[in-house]
Amino acid sequence: MPDEDEAPPASPSSLEDFGRRLEEKRAAVAERDAPQRTTASQTGAAMKIVSDLVVGVVVGAGLGWMFDEVFGTSPWFLVAFFLLGFAGGVSNVIRSVNALQAGEKGGDER
Fold first, then answer.
1. Whole-structure pTM value
2. How far apart are CA 47 and CA 42, in angstroms?
3. On the CB side of 23, how many CA atoms lie within 13 Å of its CA?
4. Quick one: CA dihedral 89, 95, 99, 104, positive or negative?
5. Cβ atoms 57, 89 nearer than 8 A
6. In this predicted model, what pLDDT tens digit does every residue of 45-65 receive, in sequence order?
7. N or C of the chain: less Cβ packing under 10 Å?
């Protein structure tokens, strides 16, 4: 006498359908969980943007400190040139990002 809790044997077509759906779900999960990779050009662009900002600030502060030492006006030139260097660095970052975005769109808009 068969158990009432036993499920009837699955047909081959339903097993194939189940296998197909299982593979689709596995592929979707693997795609979702895969780490996003950056290319070397993306890393290079990020390094250029960071260095534009840092160099602007460092050069501005260095010039300000040098003028303060020469003229004995500490800290006025340092503050003024630091702010100018920061503004120049941000300007370069904006210019670089705009160029990258124009390149992604396929055109070279400026």
1. 0.60
2. 9
3. 6
4. positive
5. yes
6. 999 999 999 999 999 999 999
7. N
